[in-house]
Design brief:
The complex is a heterodimer of chains A (156) and B (280). Chain A has 156 residues and is mostly helical. Chain A is built from two helices and no strands. Chain B has one domain. The chains are: A mainly alpha (156), B mainly alpha (280).
Chain lengths: 156, 280
């Protein structure tokens, strides 16, 4: 229990151990810790950056999608409009064609009627002339009265 | 009954006797063969057992930590490196919290103190009879295995720390600043003797309390282990009680040995910090 040389021995041992620790143990361990701290910090920063980039890309993709959708909608609308136009045009064309054909048919009918009327008139005239001939046979000479007869025919 | 008390007393005394190597009154050097002989050797003697365990445990700490230090990698740490790093970071944080100046010696010193004192205290958990009995078989008459129950060991460290604080005080503040700190406060220069007395007590009490706190705690702890060990020879019932008590005390002691190592380290950091402060 008495104080003796152990005191001095322990002091020297203590100083030597502290020196050893200071020289060979503390610096490499702390350096390794610091290096790892930096590595982790870098890794976290990279992760953050990646996350940010991902976010940007997602936003960009969403934008593109929206654009594409809008474009598609526009195209569809245009197509519909165009289809309507085509149908309208076709309707009008058909209508016009119908009108034209109707007019042509009417004209033909008129023509036919005129022709028939003409033929009828000629026949009536011939009949009238024939009737008049029969009545006037005796009194009228066909050659002498040819002018008169022709005039009558023309008037009829 | 008398025989038994005597045996118990002798048992305790035997456990508290160091293995001393020193100069005998007749001038020759030898191991002391009795407590009286050890006492007669005075200052010119050395406690071989505590010195050995102290050196061995300190070297063990340096060896184990040095192994990590040479292979320290900033990659994924292995199991032991992980543990060492945890300890180093814990010490580093304590130093950062308490020590505000710059001195590359303080953190390694704190680590050495913490690990070394922890290991020395840890020897307390080895059942008190194992190593002395082994030593007895090998022909060594006395053996104390817990270095921190030897005041030489604790004072050896605290006085060294005290001298270091004096050195850094004078180095940082200059001799005048250091003397001024001792004599010109707290009452101003007209109460110089009172100042010197107060500050002197303040100064001296640091190493004394530092070493006595550790010594007292470990000595008391060891004493209780010895007293519990006495129960083992007192019949089955008391032996079983002793076993349970020893376990309970060892669990409690785990807290004490860690705490004492931590306190010693923290106070050393604080004293070193005070030595580096221009004004306090």
């Amino acid at each position: 229990m008495n104080i003796n040389l152990t005191l001095i021995g322990q002091s020297i041992t203590f100083l030597v151990f502290v020196w050893f620790c200071m020289k060979f143990i503390w610096p490499p361990i702390v350096a390794a810790l610091e290096k790892r701290r930096v590595q982790i910090a870098d890794g976290l920063a990279a992760a953050d950056r990646g996350k940010h980039e991902l976010e940007l890309a997602a936003r960009k993709a969403a934008d593109s999608l929206k654009d594409a959708k809008a474009q598609a909608a526009e195209i569809v609308a245009q197509a519909e409009k165009r289809a309507g136009q085509i149908i309208e045009d076709a309707k009008q064309a058909a209508h016009a064609e119908g009108e034209r054909q109707l007019t042509a048919a009417k004209a033909e009918i008129d023509q036919e009627a005129n022709r028939a009327r003409e033929a009828l008139r000629e026949q009536v005239a011939a009949l009238a002339v024939a009737g008049a001939e029969k009545i006037l046979r005796r009194e009228i000479n066909a050659q002498t009265h040819a002018d008169l007869l022709n005039q009558l025919k023309a008037e009829l | 009954m008398t025989q038994e008390t005597l045996t118990a007393g002798e048992y305790i005394k035997h456990h508290l006797q160091n293995l001393v190597y020193g100069r005998l009154p007749d001038g020759s050097w030898a191991f002391a063969s009795s407590p009286e002989q050890a006492k007669s050797m005075g200052f010119m003697s050395i406690n071989v057992d505590t010195m050995f365990f102290s050196f061995f445990l300190g070297a063990l700490f340096l060896f184990l930590f040095h192994r990590v230090a040479v292979r320290a990698t900033s990659g994924v740490p292995g199991g032991w490196q992980n543990f060492v790093e945890t300890v180093v970071e814990f010490v580093d944080r304590s130093v950062r919290d308490s020590f505000t100046s710059k001195n590359n010696m303080v953190a390694p010193m704190a680590l050495t103190l913490f690990a070394w004192i922890f290991l020395m205290n840890m020897m307390d958990l080895i059942p008190v009879d194992w190593l002395p009995r082994l030593a007895h078989v090998l022909g060594i008459p006395y053996l104390r295995v817990v270095p921190s129950t030897d005041p030489n060991i604790t004072f050896g460290m605290s006085i060294t720390i005290f001298l270091l604080t004096l050195y850094y005080s004078i180095k940082v503040k200059g001799l005048g600043g250091f003397v001024g700190e001792l004599t010109l406060q707290p009452f101003g220069k007209f109460a110089l003797p009172a100042n010197l007395l107060l500050e002197g007590v303040n100064l001296i009490s640091k190493p004394v309390s530092l070493s006595l706190r550790l010594f007292g705690n470990m000595y008391a702890g060891e004493m209780i282990f010895i007293l519990i060990a006495l129960l083992f020879s007192q019949g089955v019932l008391l032996a079983v009680t002793g076993g349970v008590l020893q376990w309970v005390w060892a669990v409690f002691h785990l807290l004490i040995i860690t705490l004492q190592a931590f306190i010693f380290m923290t106070l050393t950091i604080v004293y070193m910090d005070m030595a580096h402060q221009e004004h306090h």
